[in-house]
Specification:
Elements: E1 10-13, E2 16-19, E3 24-27, E4 33-39, E5 43-44, H1 46-49, E6 54-56, E7 59-60, H2 72-84, H3 90-97, H4 103-107, E8 108-112, H5 115-123, E9 131-134, H6 144-148, H7 150-158, E10 165-170, H8 179-188, E11 190-196, H9 202-208, H10 215-228, E12 232-239, H11 247-259, E13 265-269, H12 274-287, H13 292-298, H14 307-323, H15 331-334
Parallel strand pairs: 4-8, 6-9, 9-10, 10-11, 11-12, 12-13
Antiparallel strand pairs: 1-2, 2-4, 3-4, 5-6, 7-8
The structure holds iron/sulfur cluster.
Length: about 350
């Protein structure tokens, strides 16, 4: 990576006052830019996200570019707020939004440099026993982390905490680099590291996730973390109706997780918010054209999977969990579930849901 540098203006983002300091830090050959962002606040409180936990995202945007990623809205929000406030010119806005509105999430990555000062201040607001999840709207170990080491700096600060509960979600084997810090973190806090994997089929993963690590690499990383003593498991999210929700597919993932000595396994169905549709539905139409009208019907007017589908999937997951010797869904992960599920027509699925 190498590239030019240019002055960029002051930005205000989602409940966080931030200053886009001064530079495009780096640029890849295919055009992805990495832009410095100096946040004044780095922890999102539950009141800001509607979740029961605090969240921390070392980057805005994610180079892995999964077609189903629901976090695109975060990038859009940052850029649109800046433009509305007159802090991005129209030309800069086009560049930072992308032609279709979704590309910039994958190709204009904001790097939250110098986070430790902001984190120090924010941690004073977090009561004992609270949960902080790292990587709810970005992958904290995406390739840029190898160079910028923002996540590692965050973990170094967090190892001084006591009595908190931490979750980390990633698709990247780069997390193994930080096994030492993860071990220290869990000495005086609770920790769950979630290795994210929706399929063990590398060809299918490539269709759905533009630049993510291959499934085998993620499973090897999981095994290395567990061998090092880190409390790590697998997260299967999203489960894609008609694509990855059949028993055979899920059974293969559970078996792979067991072979990798996963301590736990979680799963949840696709959320198809408006910000995702422009990116995901064309991919669905290209690879699974028969499913396109079914998804449109099932997710019409809302982002959550139909209630009956979600319940049936949950039963299927529980059966597989029992079969492979995993404990029930943890209380921490229950917080990801929406309080209210919409009632809509059930998707017609490839697998015969029980
Ligand atoms: S790795 Fe996670 S944050 Fe990154 S694009 Fe994929 S789903 Fe989104």
């Amino acid at each position: 990576m190498a590239g030019p540098s240019k002055q960029l203006p002051l930005l205000q983002t989602d409940r966080q006052a931030v200053r886009l300091s001064d530079a495009v830090l780096d640029q890849r050959l295919r055009g992805t830019k990495f832009v410095s962002l100096t946040p004044r606040r780095v922890l999102n409180p539950p009141s800001a996200t509607g979740m029961d936990y605090w969240s921390l995202n070392p980057y805005v945007g994610c180079e892995f570019g999964c077609s189903y990623c629901y976090a695109r809205y975060t990038h859009r929000y940052v850029v649109e707020r800046a433009h509305d406030a007159g802090k991005l010119t129209d030309a800069e806005f086009v560049d930072y939004r992308g032609v279709h509105g979704w590309e910039a999430f994958e190709k204009r990555i904001f790097v939250k440099e110098h986070v430790v000062g902001a984190l120090d201040a924010d941690l004073k607001r977090v009561p004992m026993g609270e949960c902080i999840v790292i990587g709810t709207a970005t992958d904290p170990y995406q390739p840029a982390e190898r160079r910028f080491r923002v996540t590692r700096a965050v973990l170094q600060r967090l190892t001084r905490c006591e009595g908190l509960s931490f979750g980390i979600i990633t698709k990247s084997s780069l997390i193994v680099r930080d096994s030492d810090l993860l071990m220290r973190l869990q000495e005086r806090n609770e920790l769950q590291v979630h290795i994210s994997l929706i399929t063990a089929d590398a060809r299918l993963a490539r269709k759905l996730e533009a630049r993510s690590p291959v499934p085998a690499a993620r499973l090897r990383a999981l095994r290395k973390l567990v061998d090092a003593g880190v409390n790590a498991g697998l997260i299967i999210a999203p489960v894609l109706p008609g694509i990855t929700d059949d028993v055979a597919h899920l059974d293969m993932l559970f078996a792979a997780a067991r072979d990798a000595q996963a301590r736990f396994i979680h799963a949840g169905p696709l959320r198809l918010y408006p910000a995702i549709r422009d990116r995901f539905l064309p991919v669905l139409g290209e690879h699974f054209p028969d499913l396109l009208p079914k998804y449109r019907r099932a997710y019409a007017g809302h982002g959550y999977a139909p209630r009956d589908y979600a319940r049936a999937l949950s039963r299927r997951i529980e059966k597989l969990r029992k079969k492979h010797g995993f404990a029930n869904q943890s209380a921490m992960f229950d917080r990801y579930r929406p309080a209210k599920m919409p009632v809509q027509g059930e998707l017609e699925l490839r697998g015969s849901l029980p």
